[in-house]
């Protein structure tokens, strides 16, 4: 590599050779010219992966970590030590979730670099950074109450929206659009830009066909399933159907043995197999929902603790509830369930 960097180690990338992730502030060269870093998160999912991709005389950064002081300090330490001497050329943000977009504003200002995102992710990030929860909190709590939560649950979960503003540093006012029709050239590599919904609005992924190198971000993750949620802004959406179609589309483009680097967990050596596992997981969840509903009716709030049996705090409940609702909306879309309203609360019944 033509930069003042010494890699700490090479990562064995066969299915049997997955090993430990890099320590905070350090990196592993996961593929030639691709540096894998990991940053802590203050959630149950306690880390996020980011990548630096060789780009001419510098590196493009894919995602940033959460927008808090602890992550900034790790970045400052990395640029003073492990990454000393490198130049950032641009920031690529896969999607607007705070563990991926959190430091976008700080990074772009500090290093004077442009940001690349899909249009839908950029506009969604801008919208959420404007603080819609501040003056429309009732809109969000009404959404949860409509689906059977208690007053306390609705207030606790809807209030989490303001927390978003505390863990993001905003976005620049201009951006470069990631367009599947154009792709993206980084250094000597040409990446196809793949996009997929379900986990987020229109998440961007990068695929180098020549090297069979796939940066899957949060669409395909080792061992865990990406969260797929219905939100108050689009209560009748079918993100789970979108997510499953995205996985099928990925299998049609990405090689079955492509090295797959994800936004969390470890690299994947067999992305087709993992995509099939995720699809099957959600089919089983849908069958489980049908069993829970049985011959009666159920709200999303009633189904959530049966699908997710561990104890849930407000943060975890919001994800679990929204994912349970995603399964209900898909089953309604498929004609297996129907909605009916009872005393101002939405319930599902087997069709």
Oligomer kind: single chain
- What proportion of the residues is helical, as a percent range? 25-40%
Beta strands, count: 15
Which word captures the global form?
Answer: globular
User: Can you tell me the residue ranges where pLDDT is under 50 for at least 5 consecutive residues?
Assistant: 1-18
Q: What is the straight-line distance between the termini?
A: 60 Å
> What is the H level of CATH, i.e. the homologous superfamily?
Ribonuclease Z/Hydroxyacylglutathione hydrolase-like
Average pLDDT over all residues: 92
Approximately how much beta-strand content do the residues carry?
Answer: 15-25%
How many independent structural domains?
A: 1
What is the CATH class?
A: Alpha Beta
CATH-derived architecture: 4-Layer Sandwich
In N-to-C order, the SSE pattern is EEEEHEHHEHHHHEEEEEHEHEHHEE
């Amino acid at each position: 590599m033509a930069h003042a960097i010494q890699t700490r180690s090479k990562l064995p990338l066969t299915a049997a050779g997955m090993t430990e992730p890099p320590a905070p502030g350090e990196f592993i060269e996961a593929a030639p010219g691709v540096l894998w870093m990991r940053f802590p998160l203050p959630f149950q999912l306690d880390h996020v992966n980011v990548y630096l991709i060789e780009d001419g005389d510098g590196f493009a950064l894919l995602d940033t970590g959460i927008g808090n002081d602890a992550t900034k300090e790790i970045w400052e330490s990395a640029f003073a030590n492990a990454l000393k001497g490198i130049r950032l050329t641009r920031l690529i943000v896969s999607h607007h979730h705070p563990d991926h977009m959190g430091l976008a504003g700080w990074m772009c200002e500090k290093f004077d670099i442009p940001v690349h995102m899909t249009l839908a992710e950029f506009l969604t990030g801008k919208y959420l950074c404007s603080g819609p929860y501040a003056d429309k909190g009732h809109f969000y709590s009404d959404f949860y109450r409509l689906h059977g939560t208690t007053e306390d649950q609705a207030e606790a979960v809807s209030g989490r929206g303001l927390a978003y503003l505390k863990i993001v540093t905003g976005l620049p006012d201009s951006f470069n659009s990631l367009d599947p029709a154009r792709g993206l050239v980084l250094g000597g590599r040409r990446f196809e830009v793949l996009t997929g919904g379900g986990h987020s609005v229109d998440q961007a992924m990068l695929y180098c066909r020549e090297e069979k190198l796939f940066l899957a971000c949060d669409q395909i993750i080792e061992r865990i399933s990406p969260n797929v949620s219905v939100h108050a802004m689009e209560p009748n959406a079918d993100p789970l159907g979108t997510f499953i179609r995205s996985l099928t589309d990925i299998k049609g483009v990405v090689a079955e043995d492509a090295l797959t680097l994800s936004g969390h967990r470890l690299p994947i050596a067999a992305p087709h197999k993992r995509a099939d596992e995720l699809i099957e997981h959600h089919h089983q969840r849908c069958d489980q929902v049908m069993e829970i509903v049985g011959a009666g009716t159920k709200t999303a709030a009633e189904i959530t603790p049966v699908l997710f049996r561990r104890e849930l705090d407000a943060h975890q409940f919001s994800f679990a509830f929204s994912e349970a609702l995603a399964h209900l909306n898909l089953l309604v879309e498929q004609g297996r369930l129907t909605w009916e309203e009872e005393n101002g609360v939405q319930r599902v019944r087997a069709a």
